[in-house]
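Colleagues,

For the teaching module next term, I've prepared a clean inverse folding example: a structure given as tokens, and then the sequence designed for it. I'd like students to try predicting residues themselves before seeing the answer, so please don't circulate the second half yet.
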């Protein structure tokens, strides 16, 4: 019996030793009775050390023991011969191993035993992971295909089908269209017989054709795969469809070079085309022309109607302009309602070229004469056109456009629908303006000074002065403010000039405050529109007053009507803040602007200043006399003081006084004077002008 049992056990041990898996024999109380070679190498324990020990303790991590006990229980079920599970084993060194465990119950004639077979899963898991990785990288966003050595398709991925339109079934077994591509170096690549390592790879851009016939750009890389003997067995192809990125490049290109509304070239592209035109004009010695077209009153239309209507108008204008041009001419939109036309190869002779350009300009004006249909509204249009001829590379493209722009502004000065050429005289003006601006910039503030013109009551008593800027250029001598102030206003330099004037005036007020004859004087300072509309203008005035210590009640700011038409509430707000500080306001050149009398009373104005043009013709022109009378009455009824400026003769003065004017300024009383001369004039006991007031 015992021998029989021993024989059975011996047989079992032989089987165990022969097993390719790690195998352990366990008795019914879970103690290890057999341990083969593979178990030694899998778990790291030599057989002698584990024999008779508890099976769970040796080969299983603590956390899996419960699972194993229930597996044991299942293995005892009579209907089941074995139980298989994937679990973790425990190595002698403490790390876990991925294993597959098969537990088999063995009944010997003496007892029940178990055989546990362990298979190391880590290698299998690694292979599975590799496979998954390979598969997922094959299923990338790139189209991929694998060809055999004869260039037949073995495998394609999903992206391949998405890009080409061919399903895997349609593709596999066929020759890829990519192979037939007529790309000489790619064709040569397939043909290479003995490949060096450098010949294993090809990369480039090709045009492929989709199933639907559409061709599209492709970035393709091909890798030849060689087997152990060095022969190419496969080709792996990966490709990217470039058509979308091309489209977005195109879109980007369009956005940066074309106007979104009209789809015309924008300024940047136009300048580039103009540069090309200049180069070819240089080559063929022929004149071309730049036409700058600006719609009249477009701003009004845009303000009055919804913007969509304005857009509609611009689109229709574009259509009509195109109708006036050859397709080879360049039409561009500079922005707003400004368009540019570039005409090339007009003529070698400038007069003929000018004539031809004018014909096109006239055609454009004519095409606008037909009213535009804007959502049922019929809208008439007109334009001003400036033309600048060019020949060769003498003038920069942007300078040419500026010239055409200058000519356009001249056209606009005249009337609607005017055409003007840029000429040398215009250029000279432009040059002067440019030079003047530069001089101004350099000369500020050393070459500038304030002069003061006296303001008196009807009794001849001085009560104030107007500060007037003077510019003494070292070479050019005196330059009139009537010339440089408007230019400074345009260029924005007025901001610096204005700030300087304000500070100088405040400093002067402080100096006068220490002199008894002068301390009662108010000082009027001219404020330009751009200066006044600065967001921090109020603060600038307050700062100038506080930093110099001038008395705000002595400062009067001269505004003009033009400043009071836009942002009315903001203007009033600014004036009110300054008024609260004690600053006074005078309305300069009154009568020349367009302000509506009805809202004049909304502004906190202390003084109206009758413009000198009315004063000077008050005796000759009954209309001007009527205006002067009306202004005086208006001032009186609104509770504002009225001052007449530009009073040159006692006759003018008499008329004004007779009509109730109480304040005067003009050459009759004194010219604008440098500060010392002005102070001397005020301090005179018997002012020279008293004779003019003898009638009192
Ligand atoms: P405005 O403010 O109307 O100044 C009056 C102008 O008339 C001054 O010319 C003055 O010299 C001149 N004038 C005064 N009395 C008589 C007269 O009896 N007869 C004649 N024919 N003219 C007289 P000015 O100094 O050449 O200034 C011209 C304009 O320049 C000023 O007109 C003003 O608008 C501007 N301006 C002058 N100084 C400044 C300044 O500091 N800042 C700003 N923003 N503008 C200034
Ligand atoms: Mg003034
Ligand atoms: Mg004035």
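(Answer key — instructors only)
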């Amino acid at each position: 019996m015992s021998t029989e049992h021993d024989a059975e056990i011996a047989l079992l041990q032989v089987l165990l030793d022969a097993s390719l898996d790690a195998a352990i024999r366990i008795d019914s109380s879970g103690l290890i009775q057999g341990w083969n070679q593979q178990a030694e190498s899998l778990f790291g324990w030599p057989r002698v050390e584990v024999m008779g020990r508890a099976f769970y303790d040796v080969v299983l991590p603590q956390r899996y023991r419960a699972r194993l006990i229930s597996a044991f229980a299942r293995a005892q079920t009579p209907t089941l011969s074995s139980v298989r599970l994937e679990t973790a084993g425990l190595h002698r060194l403490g790390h876990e191993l991925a294993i597959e465990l098969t537990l088999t119950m063995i009944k010997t004639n003496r007892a029940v035993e178990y055989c546990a077979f362990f298979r190391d899963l880590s290698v299998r898991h690694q292979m599975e992971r590799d496979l998954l990785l390979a598969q997922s990288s094959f299923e990338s966003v790139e189209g991929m295909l694998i060809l055999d050595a004869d260039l037949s398709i073995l495998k394609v991925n999903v992206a391949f089908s998405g890009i080409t339109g061919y399903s895997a079934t349609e593709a596999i077994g066929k020759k890829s269209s990519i192979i037939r591509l007529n790309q000489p170096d790619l064709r040569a690549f397939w043909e290479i017989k003995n490949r060096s390592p450098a010949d294993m790879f090809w990369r480039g851009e090709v045009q492929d054709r989709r199933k639907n016939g559409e061709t599209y750009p492709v970035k393709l890389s091909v890798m030849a795969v060689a087997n152990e003997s060095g022969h190419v067995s496969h080709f792996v192809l990966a490709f990217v469809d470039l058509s979308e990125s091309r489209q977005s490049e195109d879109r980007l290109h369009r956005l940066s070079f074309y106007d979104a509304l009209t789809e015309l070239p924008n300024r940047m592209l136009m300048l580039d085309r103009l540069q090309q035109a200049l180069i070819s004009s240089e080559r063929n010695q022929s004149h071309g022309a730049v036409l700058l077209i600006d719609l009249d009153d477009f701003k009004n239309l845009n303000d009055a109607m919804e913007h969509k209507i304005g857009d509609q108008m611009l689109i229709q204008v574009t259509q009509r302009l195109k109708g006036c041009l050859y397709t080879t001419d360049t039409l561009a939109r500079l922005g707003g309602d400004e368009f540019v036309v570039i005409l090339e190869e007009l003529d070698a002779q400038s007069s003929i070229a000018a004539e031809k350009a004018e014909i096109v300009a006239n055609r454009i004006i004519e095409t606008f004469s037909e009213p535009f249909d804007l959502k049922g509204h019929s809208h008439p249009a007109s334009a001003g056109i400036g033309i600048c001829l060019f020949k060769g590379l003498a003038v920069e493209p942007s300078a040419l456009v500026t010239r055409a722009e200058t000519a356009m502004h001249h056209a606009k000065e005249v009337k609607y629908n005017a055409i003007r050429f840029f000429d040398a005289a215009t250029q000279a003006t432009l040059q002067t303006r440019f030079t003047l601006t530069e001089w101004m910039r350099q000369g500020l503030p050393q070459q500038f000074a304030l002069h003061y013109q006296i303001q008196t009551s009807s009794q001849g008593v001085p009560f104030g002065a107007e500060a007037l800027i003077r510019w003494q250029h070292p070479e050019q001598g005196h330059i009139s403010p009537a010339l440089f102030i408007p230019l400074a206003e345009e260029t924005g330099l007025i901001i610096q000039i204005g700030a300087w004037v304000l500070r100088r005036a405040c400093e002067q007020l402080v100096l006068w405050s220490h002199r008894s004859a002068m301390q009662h004087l108010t000082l009027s300072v001219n404020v330009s529109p751009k200066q006044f509309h600065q967001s921090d203008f109020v603060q600038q005035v307050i700062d100038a007053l506080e930093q110099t210590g001038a008395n705000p009640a002595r400062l009067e700011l001269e505004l003009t009507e033009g400043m009071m038409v836009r942002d009315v509430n903001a203007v009033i707000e600014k004036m009110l803040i300054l008024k609260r500080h004690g600053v006074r306001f005078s309305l300069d050149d009154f009568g020349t602007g367009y302000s509506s009398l009805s809202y004049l009373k909304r502004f906190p104005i202390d003084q109206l200043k009758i413009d000198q043009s009315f004063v000077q013709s008050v005796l000759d022109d009954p209309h001007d006399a009527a205006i002067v009378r009306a202004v005086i009455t208006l001032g009186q009824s609104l509770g504002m003081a009225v001052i007449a400026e530009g009073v040159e003769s006692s006759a003018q003065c008499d008329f004004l006084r007779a009509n109730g004017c109480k304040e005067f300024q003009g050459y009759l009383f004194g010219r604008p004077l440098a500060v010392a001369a002005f102070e001397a004039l005020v301090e005179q006991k018997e002012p020279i002008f008293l004779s003019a007031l003898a009638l009192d």
